[in-house]
Amino acid sequence: MKKMKKAIVLSTGLLLASTSFSVIPWNTPVVEAASSLKIPRTVYQTTANLNIRAGAGTKYKTVITVPKGKTVIATEKLGDWYKVSYTYSIKGKGHTKIGWVSGRYLKKVSSNPSAGATARPTAIPKTTYQTIANVNIRTGAGTKYKTIMTVPKGKTVTATEKLGNWYKVSYQYDWKGKRYVKTGWISGSYLREYDQYKNTSAAYYFTKTTTSLYGVPKRQGSTVKVASGNGLYSTRMVINSIGQIWYEVLFKGRKLYVLADDVTKIMPQRFSETKYEAIKDVGLYAAPGSAHDRLATIPKGTVITSALRIGDWYEVVYKEKKGYIYMSGVTKYVPAPSNSPSNPAPEQPSPPPSTSVTEQEMLGRTFAVRVNLNVRKLPDTNADILTIIPKGTIIVPTHKTSNNWYKLQYKGRIGYVSGASDYVTEVKTGAPLDGSRNGYQFLDLRTEAPIKAEQINAYIAKNAGNRPSVLIGKGQAFIDAGKKYGVNALYLAAHAIHESAFGTSRLALTKYNLFGYGAYDDAPFVAAYRFPSIEACIDYIARTIKATYLNPNYPLFKGAYLGFRTNTLAGVRVDESSEGMNFYYASDPYWGQIIARHMANMLAYDPDDYASARINETVPSRPPIPQGGDIFPSGIVAVANSEFSLYGEKGGEVVAKISKGSTFMLLEKTNDYWIRLQYNGRQYWTNAIKLYDYAHYMTVQNLGSVAADGLNVRSTPQIRNDNIIGQLKLGQYVQLKLTSNGTVEQQGPWYKVVLDDGRVGWVHSQYIIRELK
Questions:
Q1: Are 139 and 206 members of one domain?
Q2: Which range, of 441-450, 508-517, 565-574, averages the lowest pLDDT?
Q3: Under a CB-based contact definition with an 8 Å cutoff, are residues 111 and 92 in contact?
Q4: Do 141 and 2 sit in the same domain of this protein?
Q5: Domain co-membership, 476 together with 558
Q6: Which CATH number is 206's domain given?
Q7: Which one-letter DSSP state was computed for residue 339?
Q8: Which pLDDT score, from 0 to 100, does residue 112 have?
Q9: Of all residues in the chain, what percent are helix, strand and coil, respectively (each to 5)?
Q10: Looking at the 3D structure of the chain, how many domains does it have?
Q11: How many Å apart are CA 131 and CA 191, to the nearest integer?
Q12: Which of 25, 216, 287, 715 has its Cα between 20 and 30 A from that of 651?
């Protein structure tokens, strides 16, 4: 595979089509066409990616390729060819190219683009633009007009009129405490539409009527139709360039946009846990609305439990699937009369006790109680009830009887509970088995910790030992972030210490990612966010945690403390026996315990430290995804395992699809999970590939990452003192050389690699991790 050359990228932000992109030297003369006719200066718009040529015909050399939708100004004509000028910018500087284009790909916009008072501007909706370079405001629509002032790069202006590729704008700015407004004309080559994104509290937005969802926050491009009464989850709004309010929503795994006028905001409502009975077969949907994926059908007569309502939909769990059911399909459950005052759940029948019932020691096995469960004096449903164990309680029986009852001690009483699978499930749990709720595991993490930076630093330095660590001396960063957002700094430090192995993990050392943020199980390194600094990572996570897991109004809130998780032996969470951050944040049932242990190691728990501590209930907005990502080496080959959409630019319109079995080149992955790739000679973006299940979408054949710092690259597949030709850094991506049949070239335990400069060498496979294979 040949190494790709770097291409010049125009500030237009558009990707070019399969026609080649080239720029001739600035001093190359343009061939003048013979017998051409002068025409009035006329503005045209390109209807396709269009080559400007040195003469009036395809035999002439290409000067530059103009992207589709751009404007050019024509002054001469020869047959069906027009002599035009095209203005664009590179790295903030304006450039103009002159040459000939075919009239087949031009659409007339206006005549006399710079004729001053004689030209008629066209009114446009008031639109906000952002400058992509330092640009002059002029008194008229053309470079011949006087400059009023220069607008810096990155500022916003509002436009109300257009003449050719020029916009009449207003620019507001402050100078020495006073507000000024300047009005004039700016070339459209230096403007891009400005959409303002804002994070919002999590909410559902229900469609009022059949509603269109768009790929961008404006009424353009392909749409997805959603019937009325469907809830769309959102944490971000957009004020687009013409002032419309849109919500960024999730629908069937896709990020789409809905106009605010088309939906009604509905917040989730929590209530006391209530049982409901299905009065007919009821659909269980992935989100509140029948337009979402149907997860299962709940049969008529089934009893389910809910404690959350969103509009007319209840959140329930059925056969370990969490989803939403429409309230008209259920009614409140009324249990049958019972002689028992407490009316506990019925128990599995068993034969009367006899001397044949034997007991076997349980050796510390742990169980979760799934219903309110009777403790009886003997292992028999007819025996006296001693007490009732509430649903969700963790028990540690001492014995199991031959007729499937468990012997245990509960609140000082020794008795038996039925071992029926509907009532108890064997689990692994991080819950304190003595039922206590003291210590850091149950501390409200919105309180301030009496910890000093020196204590954090000493603990990290002691445990990092001689290993390189990015957390050395960073204790103050945790304290600063904790105070800034109202999060316990001791917890923040312990969390980072656990997830990053005291700052020595590969993610910490190479991506400054201390918390494993974004590191899906299927793609732990590639998917993980890349941060610009350790401080930036700590600040981002502190704000994110406060806005989500410690926010009572956020869907993932299960208590503002570490808590614990309880899993079945198959790894499925037992909801009624899980709580706190550990409920959703980590699949490890002991995660909360481990973080609490690190906290105690830095500062012994003293309840007096928090007896009168104030709980900081402020909730910051959720931070935007940090800029950054991963650039892959050239020559990384991937195969599509399913069809997915391709976009001309991030957040743009779908311009193509890649079919199953097609081969493409992997180029880049950003923190917001957009992937840049090359397919059939063109570059595209896609956010359709979900890295938590990447194998459904693609298989990457030859991407490796380095697992050790200073990895030697050798000219031959053997360890010698005279064959080292280079070194690779920890976490560096590397292209593995492919054979003609598409497999990685290998000799024994050695991989053949292609370096950035094109040289080929060998590295030991022990130090290479195959990514996304």
A1: no
A2: 565-574
A3: no
A4: no
A5: yes
A6: 2.30.30.40
A7: S
A8: 52
A9: 15, 40, 45
A10: 8
A11: 5
A12: 287
Q: How many CB atoms lie within 10 A of CB 28?
A: 11
Q: Which structure tokens are listed for 333? A: 């459950």
Contact (Cβ atoms closer than 8 angstroms) between residue 427 and residue 567: yes
Apex CA 656: angle with CA 651 and CA 657, to 5°?
105
Domain containing 408: what range?
Answer: 359-429
CA distances from 617 to 493, 553, 557, 580 (A): 20, 11, 14, 16
- What number of other Cβ atoms are within 10 A of residue 725's Cβ? 14
Residue 673 in contact with residue 665, Cβ under 8 Å? no
Are 692 and 714 in a shared domain?
no
Q: What's the farthest any 2 CA atoms get from each other in the chain? A: 117
Backbone angles phi, psi at 292, to 5 degrees: -80, 170
Contacts of 508-511 spanning 24+ positions with Cβ under 8 A: 508/469, 508/470, 508/471, 509/468, 509/470, 509/730, 509/731, 510/729, 510/730, 510/731, 510/732, 511/731
Contact 421, 360 (CB under 8 A): no
Both tokens of 134, joined, read 């330092």
3-class DSSP state for residue 77? strand
Query: Which of 50, 85, 111 delimits the end of a domain?
Result: 111
Q: Which of 50, 84, 111 represents a domain boundary (last residue)?
A: 111
What is the rounded end-to-end Cα distance, in angstroms, of the chain?
18
The verdict on 9 and 58 lying in the same domain is yes
Query: How many Cβ atoms are within 10 Å of 707's Cβ, its own excluded?
Result: 15
Dihedral angle sign, alpha carbons of residues 350, 353, 356, 359: positive
Residue 259 lies in a domain: yes
Same domain? 189 vs 210: no
393 has a pLDDT exceeding 90: yes
Backbone angles phi, psi at 230, to 5 degrees: -105, 135
CA dist., res. 197 & res. 608, Å (int): 44
Higher pLDDT, 208 or 760: 760
Specify whether 716 is located in the same domain as 694.
no
Q: How many residues does the chain have?
A: 773
